[in-house]
Amino acid sequence: MKILVTGATGYIGKRLIPLLLNDGHSVICPVRDKERAKSYYKNQKKVQLVEADFLDSNSLTNITKDIDAAYYLIHSMTNSAKEFHVLEEKCAFNFKNFIETTSTKQVIYLSGITNDTKLSKHLLSRKNVEKTLASNKYALTTFKAGIIVGSGSSSFEIIRDIVEKLPAMIAPKWLNTKTQPLAIRDVLSFLHKSLGKKELYNTSHDIFGPEILTYKEMLLQFADVRKLKRSIITVPVMTPKLSSYWLYFVTSTSYKLASSLVNSMGVEVIGNKSNINTILDVQPMSYKEAVKLAFKKIEQNSIISSWKDSYISSGKLKNYVHEFINVPEYGCFKDFKKRTVIDKERTLNRIWAIGGETGWYYGTFLWKIRGFLDQFFGGAGLRRGRRHPTELNVGDALDFWRVIYADKEKGKLLLYAEMIMPGEAWLEFKIIDNTLHQTATFRPHGLAGRLYWYAVMPFHWFVFNGMISNINK
């Protein structure tokens, strides 16, 4: 079949598409930034990338109408737009209007469990999207999931941060909220197996794991899997704002996402039983099994997707990485260094391993101080790390940088800074004629930007000089 998949660069989409390709289907991926998506699907002949934005109905004319089925995986977990629910509804409305002009027979939508009488505004928005997507022209199949557990998922990484960093903690009362966590593998099974199932046309099903757990129990079970002893005391005095700051400083999440999560974590996420497990022959695994499986993926360096690579973890970049590929020349400060390459393959491997657990090859304590200051002022800091220890794709998060261009064959890596600063910064590595060029570019915003550059310039001399020397060892 020809299947349209929205959210092709997202956490779910990047894991679902290989399953569809393995079945022999052709996949059409409407993406806002084609340059970013190319690195994920460059060797897939049955993947067609189309630049389109569902907030702009005029851009959808580029998408073929010869479609058999579609997946709606567009979600937002940010508070950056006060009326984000309006934007989500507009996305769904434009998607529906377009799909109704195609030959699509089934739309499969992944939503959130919305059974509590008091829902967060994000869950209310998910519920409204389901109503918007309903149509007489095609059949809608809706799956509603709660907490998704898997390597790279936001819930998994946040819980991991809390458990591994804090031997004892005084935590907000929402840790006593009940939920039914579901493994990412099981989510994908529901989405994958429901394709073309006529008995699921125009139906909605809650999908959930076999246990009802509080967030506190999830933390303690996670600690048990990791063989760590942890103590948790919950207190009722933390306001949502304090809770958001607590989550932000303890974990690798952004403040905006922390705030969204806190608002949602006060809502019980308990699913209504149905016969969906029998229909699709899916028997969801336990929470502990899901955590163990996630760590197997991490140990094998096989994390396919991570929430940190989403733009919701960004302080600056919103949608289009290609807008930052051309590094500005005028009105900029530059720190340029070069070295004759001793071993090209080794040098490239060291460049591609930069950041995360590897570090930045020189002045680690200075990088950590800069990361702490960035986090203090609301930035990402060094907490995001990287998805894979040696692989980089366009759009990947890399500590407080974002990968803008990565081509190992051409010997070029370009990073854009997402740290809080009075200006914009790029860091470029490229090998030309057996010479490694390392260029840090800073475009200041006003007088504050210029003062900032001169203040950090002495540190840059040591850090960047040591970095290129150690990369080229």
From TrEMBL:
Gene3D superfamilies with a match to the protein in the record: NAD(P)-binding Rossmann-like Domain
Matches recorded under InterPro entries: ComplexI_NDUFA9_subunit (IPR051207), DUF2867 (IPR021295), NAD(P)-bd_dom (IPR016040), NAD(P)-bd_dom_sf (IPR036291)
Superkingdom as given in the UniProt entry: Bacteria
GO MF assignments: protein-containing complex binding
Domain called NAD(P)-binding: residue spans: 7-139
Record protein name field: Epimerase
